[in-house]
Specification:
The chain is built from 2 helices and no strands. By secondary structure, it is mainly α. The longest helix has 36 residues. The protein is elongated, with a radius of gyration of 23 Å.
Length: 90
């Protein structure tokens, strides 16, 4: 009875699931939620900007900031997916 040696396991060729780019994407998407849920940070009147209390203009600023962060996350995600596809086809 001769036992043949087992072949070594194939190396894992898949890229890791958690990468620095994906961490940045997550931070871009989580930041608006944290900013809006932390009400104590913006529940005040001062400083007033062109007659608008801080409470209101801070929230409106986050509408623009959230849009920009979502766009950044989308572009990074598309780039990450393209890189993974190219890596898988090689």
């Amino acid at each position: 009875m001769s036992a043949e040696p087992e072949a070594p396991p194939a190396p894992n060729t898949e890229p890791p699931v958690v990468t620095p780019v994906r961490v940045v994407i997550a931070l871009c998407l989580i930041a608006p939620f944290v900013a809006m849920l932390w009400v104590g940070s913006y529940a005040k009147i001062e400083p007033v900007l062109i007659g608008i209390p801080f409470f209101y203009w801070y929230q409106m600023a986050w509408v623009v900031i959230s849009t920009a962060l979502t766009m950044v996350a989308y572009v990074l995600w598309q780039r990450d997916q393209r890189a993974r596809k190219e890596g898988a086809s090689k």
